[in-house]
C-alpha cells in the first residue's frame, strides 16, 4: 500500500487511518508513506522565516482558501478547508499502535518540487530548505510491515 504527498494532513483520526491501513495489508505486506515533513509544513515562508502552523497535535486547523493545492491561482470562491497537523512521532506511534513494524524512516532534505512554493531551487533543480550551513527536511518516507503472523501482535 502506498500513500504519498499531502495525504495525512486531511486525516483527523490518524490512529484509525493506520488501523485501516494495517487491516488492508496481508501478513508481510508493506505500507510505504511519503509525505511532506511536518516541520516543513509549519512554515509560511523561508525568507523571512515565518512559521504559522502547529507541529503536531492533530487539532483541526481551519482556513478559508481560494484556488486549489494543484493550482493556487485558479479563480474559485473562497471555501473553508480543515487540515490536521501530525508530528513524525505521532505518525510512527500510530503505525506501531496499529500493529505495524516500522522498519525504515528517512527524513529527506531535498525534493523535486516545492509543495509550499516557498523554497529556493538549487542549481541541480532540486528544492531545499537552507538552515545555516545545512538543510532541514522537507519530506519523509516511512516503511512499515504487517507482521507475518498477526496473532503475535498485542
Can you characterise this structure?
With 154 residues, the chain is an alpha+beta fold. Helices cover 16% and strands 30% of the residues. It contains 3 helices and 10 strands, in the order E-H-E-H-E-E-E-E-H-E-E-E-E. A 4-stranded mixed beta sheet has the order 1-2-10-7. It has a two-stranded antiparallel sheet with strand order 3-4. It has a two-stranded antiparallel ribbon with strand order 5-6. The chain starts with a strand and ends in a 9-residue tail after the last strand. The model has no long low-confidence stretch (mean pLDDT 92).
Summary?
This protein is of the alpha+beta class.
SSE layout:
Layout: E1 2-4, H1 14-24, E2 30-36, H2 38-41, E3 43-45, E4 50-51, E5 61-65, E6 79-83, H3 88-97, E7 101-108, E8 129-131, E9 134-136, E10 139-145
Amino acid at each position: 500500500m502506498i500513500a504519498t504527498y499531502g495525504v495525512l494532513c486531511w486525516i483527523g483520526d490518524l490512529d484509525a487511518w493506520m488501523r485501516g491501513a494495517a487491516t488492508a495489508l496481508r501478513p508481510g505486506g508493506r505500507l510505504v508513506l511519503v509525505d511532506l515533513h511536518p516541520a516543513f509544513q509549519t512554515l509560511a515562508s523561508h525568507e523571512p522565516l515565518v512559521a504559522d502552523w502547529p507541529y503536531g497535535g492533530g487539532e483541526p486547523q481551519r482556513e478559508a482558501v481560494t484556488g486549489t493545492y494543484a493550482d493556487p491561482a485558479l479563480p474559485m470562491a473562497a471555501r473553508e478547508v480543515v487540515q490536521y497537523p501530525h508530528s513524525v512521532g505521532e505518525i510512527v506511534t500510530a503505525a506501531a499502535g496499529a500493529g505495524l513494524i516500522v522498519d525504515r524512516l528517512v527524513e529527506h532534505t531535498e525534493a523535486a518540487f516545492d509543495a509550499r512554493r516557498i523554497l529556493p531551487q538549487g542549481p541541480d533543480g532540486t528544492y531545499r530548505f537552507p538552515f545555516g550551513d545545512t538543510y532541514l527536511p522537507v519530506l519523509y518516507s516511512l516503511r512499515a510491515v504487517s507482521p507475518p503472523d498477526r496473532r503475535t501482535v498485542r
